Amino acid sequence: MTRASGDINDPARAEAGRSRIDWAAAEMPVLAGIRERFARERPLQGLRISGCLHITSETANLARTLRAGGAGLVLCASNPLSTQDDVAASLVVHDGIPVFARRGEDTETYYRHIRAALAHRPRITLDDGADLVSELHKTQRDLLDGMLGGTEETTTGVIRLRAMAAEGALRYPVVAVNDALTKHLFDNRYGTGQSALDGVIRATNSLIAGRVFTVVGYGWCGRGLAMRAKGHGARVVVTEVEPLRALEAVMDGFEVMPLVQAAARSDFIVTVTGDKHVLDRCHFEVMKDGCVIANSGHFNVEINLPALAAMAVRRQRPRESVEEFVLADGRRIRVLAEGRLVNLAAAEGHPAAVMDMSFANQALAVAWLVEHGPQLAAEVHPVPREIDQAVARLKLDALGLQIDRLTPEQSAYLASWGEGT
Questions:
Q1: Among 3, 120, 246, 293, which has the minimal tally of Cβ within 10 Å of its Cβ?
Q2: pLDDT bucket at 3, cuts 50 / 70 / 90
């Protein structure tokens, strides 16, 4: 495709992409309601936005919502293996949104696409891992003075942004969408829990029941994955470095032990930590023959693939999303999706119904930044409680559910201190 419309693999797949986007839209009623309001009120009129996000059918519905609000939007991929090429084609062909994303793009192309998105001279950034913000601060600092703010969707990205803020490097405010309760309690737990396990099963077609399934990291994503693996009949082991999370995993009924011990008995190991080289040489040395390892943290650094490659005497691809590393003693270690996000690289990512709340937060946070961005300090900000509450209420309404409300007497009691026993 030409620069004006982005850089995508196959515009001929646009019709298939539109069908996929419309299918997801049916599961995203909260975002649909926001899109209707945005179309009436145009709160983003004339606003330039660049987004570095997973180019999926759910993201496409966020993009349509921002465009309905009047924004000029350019997108690039936040992961080389998460792009759905048919969705990218539909966004370009049917919605006129420039998209710079090709499934399987190399590292050089990945960063070229990020720079192309920044060439849009955005006033707001949308990030999924903080690569866009990082590149902007490293190579496009001339754009910083015009920035209103940004949003960040992932735990990994929020960690990076807080590190930038702590060093005084962050030059504009960013809203931590990831930390909204209607995001991480649902997207991270139920979305990652289901989609990561889906990726493992699609890649291997292996039975989970009765197998030892180790979850590395017991944050919200790890909680969800452990829950879903247990539901499939796995014998679940959790490994952690945080004592409170380890204790919680014990109380939730899981075995807890050091990773080097778990590695020796596991059939499956999935990392969800956001840290580097969590699975390392010492673990590869004790793994069982045929152990399947995968990552559902944002970046492909959680598994030390260079160390594993150095140990291997042969590498082969028995299945599309599986690479087998054969060690000198004949043991085979099977890596899924090149160590990238297994739920997006080997499956389709989170179900649309859970992304409905995450992207509702994104859209409302962008509108909030338009109004409040100039007054905000250059640091990481929480999603305002009123937005979080509104998204939850809209989701309940969409599900046809009602809840109780406090009476005036109850509200007054909770706001007072004088009445006791």
A1: 3
A2: very low
What pLDDT, in 10s, does the model give residues 295-313? Answer: 999 889 999 999 999 999 9
Contact 130, 157 (CB under 8 A): yes
Residue with tokens 């059939």: 267
Is 187 labelled a binding residue?
Answer: yes
56 is in an annotated binding site: yes
Is 182 assigned a ligand-binding role in the annotation? no
User: What pLDDT, in 10s, does the model give residues 128-160?
Assistant: 999 999 999 999 999 999 899 999 999 899 999
Residue 223, annotated ligand binder? yes
Q: Annotation-wise, does 218 bind a ligand?
A: yes
**296 carries a ligand binding annotation:** yes
Is 86 known as a binding-site position? no
Q: Is 324 annotated as a binding residue?
A: no
Residue 128 assigned ligand-binding role = yes
- 171's CB contacts (< 8 A; 6+ apart) are 137, 141, 144, 147, 378
pLDDT above 70 for 4: no
Q: Does 217 show up as a binding residue in the annotation?
A: yes
Domains of the chain: 3-183+349-398 (3.40.50.1480), 191-345 (3.40.50.720)
